[in-house]
């Protein structure tokens, strides 16, 4: 209605149009606000007008005044011409500021001394060098060509979004103050966006809930969109103005995608209403399609319907929030407040920008204000969801505690049954030992009988030798009487043959008895060693099981008892009570202690299960160098010196991970228990000792008074000799357990305030190279 009316007035009442009053600039003015009385406008619907036509006398009647302080033409469909009359009476520098970040092109026409018009072209789609003062808006220097006379200036504005003209003339001394005031307001908004992104990103990494991540992405994209539409992107990245302008509509279309995804996840829409879940999926599909069309170049075409689409989404968000809140999901309340506030300010701003409502100076801040308030209330909604997750975690902890108690009872029962089975095996072994003793006694009796038989055979042999001698003597006598006693000699010869055969049989029997005796002794010795080894293994297992039983009864039951005690004093009537928060904190710490004990037990049990690991050839200097690098920060902090010059044995055949763990724990202990009186020196040696490779690690630390300490306690689980140093008492226990599982041993020498030496003996299972 406004344009046709203006056209009729121009046709029928050309003579009643008042002449445009000039703007007098004397040099005393700081800021001159321009309004409908000092500016006239004309919409170029033909998009073909040139300065020669616009500046002609016949065309002046087409310019119109406006009553509001700000010219608002809504969505920019046509170029807009502005006419300003200025009377410049000073040589001070003045600037014309157009407060509109959406101006793609600005043509500033000004007369020269001959009256011909010159043009200066600038805008957000043109290089930054075209601007007199780089800013998020358009700032033009007023030419100082003519003084003390009226000059008619024309401006032609081209925009792909909105056409609002809020203009003022500012002297050079006040231009910075004018820009900074606007920047403070806009940067405060961006500060809210940045804080919301950082806060919700931190919460996401804490609770691992995808809703927080989607909201962070949505908030970031909204901030980037406002950052772009307020002109900051083109200001900060002037070399990419054309690219930013090309994808400006694409940037504006992204945030609604993640707003829909955030709504679906935060409100659990699929759980509460399948109808609204499908509606959101439909909107998500349309949003993806609009984003794609915007990306390929249809952003200007879709821009006019963007507000309608956004308001449709907000209406659906609010409806979904109401449905979910009525079904009992409490975080939806803040969600409704958030999007309701956002929708109110966005709707108000849309009506102002499109010209339905009056456009004031503050109207350009309605969208950022609505976004900031929406961000604050949405963050509150997410914080409320954290409380819901917290209650769920408390319920989960209670369930896990019950499961853990059941598992502890089941495991305790299994250990008791295993203990009874071991006791039964011990009784059987004792009976087998008694039987072996009886067998050994019988074998000794048989050995005595065999020795008696051997003595008897020896006597018989001596008797045979004597008889042979007598026979030979008698034979010599019989030779002389050979003719007389041939028959007697023949009989005697037969007896001699029989005696020889009997001797041979007795000799063979003796050899067989000797072989049987030797084999029997070897079998007895081997069986005795096997039984002794079995007895030692069972004794060690019995000790380990006793130790595990002690750990379970003390180290596991203690945290469980604390958890039960804390739950008994937990006030279920007030979950947000400060005392309850302290109880929950103590529950977390106690649960962490329980987890640490279970991990320690798992690590100890894994040593027994890892005995089947493949042994390999290990180069000791390389292992020591690796562990020294792993402890680099502790060594540098303590200023420790590592001496490895006395490695006589450099190769070892064993399990690599065990050797690494043993060396790591012993070097770490030497650093932990260093003396405050001197810098630590750690000497690592290796040599052959009997059938072992001895690795010695010596330090000059605090030392231990071994006369007052049980050596078993030093290598015991959770045993510590110095309480002023942090630790769990696991290191030396692992060293002893690992070396004994390899078939070796560990020994200690220590003197109080002098130092400690640990000797670790590895079985010598291969040949080694020694130093020259």
Automatic annotation (TrEMBL):
The keyword Transferase applies. It holds the Pfam family HATPase_c. InterPro entries: 7TMR_DISM_rcpt_extracell_dom1, 7TMR_DISM_rcpt_extracell_dom2, BphY/WalK/GraS-like, HATPase_C_sf, HATPase_dom, His_kinase_dom, HisK_dim/P_dom, HisK_dim/P_sf. Its EC number is 2.7.13.3. Keywords: Coiled coil, Kinase, Membrane, Phosphoprotein, Transferase, Transmembrane, Transmembrane helix. Residues 551-766 form the Histidine kinase domain. GO terms for molecular function: phosphorelay response regulator activity; phosphorelay sensor kinase activity; protein kinase activator activity. It catalyses: ATP + protein L-histidine = ADP + protein N-phospho-L-histidine. One of its GO terms (biological process) is osmosensory signaling via phosphorelay pathway. The chain crosses the membrane at residues 187-205, 212-237, 243-263, 275-296, 302-325, 332-353. Residues 386-548 form a coiled coil. This is histidine kinase.
